[in-house]
Known about the structure:
- This protein has 407 residues and is α+β, with helices and mostly antiparallel strands.
- The longest helix has 32 residues.
- Helices cover 43% and strands 15% of the residues.
- The chain has 2 domains: 95 residues, no CATH class; 251 residues, no CATH class.
- The relative contact order is 0.12.
- Helix 6 packs parallel to helix 7 and helix 10 runs antiparallel to helix 11.
Amino acid sequence: MEDRTGCPSVTEDALTEIIRSGARELLAKALELEVAEYLERFEDYRDERGRRQVVRNGYLPEREVQTGIGAVPVRQPRVRDRGREPVERFESKLLPRYLRRTKSVEELIPWLYLKGVSTGDFSDALSALLGKDAPGLSASTVVRLKQTWERDFEAWSRRSLLDKRYVYLWVDGIYFNVRLEEDRQCILVVMGTTEDGTKELVAVQDGFRESEQTWHEVLIDLQKRGLEAPPDLAIGDGALGFWKALAKVFPTTRTQRCWVHKTANVLSKMPKSRHPHAKKLLHRIWMASTRDEASQALQLFADTYSAKYPKAVECVLKDEDALLTFYDFPAEHWRHLRTTNPIESTFATVRLRTTRTKGCGSRIACLAMVFKLAEAAQKGWRRLNGYEYLADVLSGVRFIDGIKAAA
Length: 407
């Protein structure tokens, strides 16, 4: 409503402020609930003194979140992990880091696309998120942006890797809400860390998660573009077809199974009533300070559950060596090597393994959206802890239980 001068009326301003206050309260409650559910997941994890390892720790500094009714201030709860090694870094799904820190349409569009929002619906979706006066809302603008990103992705996919040396690689196959062509099921993602500890997006390709052939194509392409030196370690889910392909292309690269994937696989073979205790025993394995302690913890898990849940126990035992490879690398790197978290955290808000949209998305458009989303997230990736030890890893120095062996 406007007065006779064409300016918004006092009534409209008051109503907007009331709505904005309601939105702030609603968002605050949602964030509190999200943190409460996260803390409940790790209720059984305790430190050496028996105290809860994962706890609330006040609030992060207040920030503004751009919405359709303008900027809404919000204080996000802070989570603290008091253990020597964090069990899992808290990442808000409501306010993911790579979206909440920017109002850029160029970072929202890839996220919306991978959520299954069609090009024709972008204007409405962006209006709801950023307000009707936000820039870049027209369908033609969105199409031009997508075309630019597709060209960027194709150029990036052909870049030379002659000057690259990746010490560690993380790999996974990610399913999104956008359906690909029938002969391509998911997006294969490879991330790596360079000699100075910088994490980088290495490859994005569509294919079959369990297929040796499609992963072989990814690795051969990297090799042809100049990546000749084999990575020292690769981290991923044991169900990937990647491992057979890796043995053919980079046979000297060692393997580390992801504990997040392994834990999920083990728990799927047990009743939900046993999950809290089983997770606690599994946690003791990969949080042990030495390989011997880890093996003892694994044996405890086997002794506890082998009679009633033999498939769950076998799921762990068959990959024991690959699950404990990280003990042969610097202890400062362990938190990075035990899981595929660099990939998981980047795509946590948009990945989906079951339901998909009815429409069939463009193959190159989907790849470009994954690339742009990861590219935006990459700006916030931290350098590898203990990166100074990477030189030792590359030179072949032996590490025993994370400690450099005496010469």
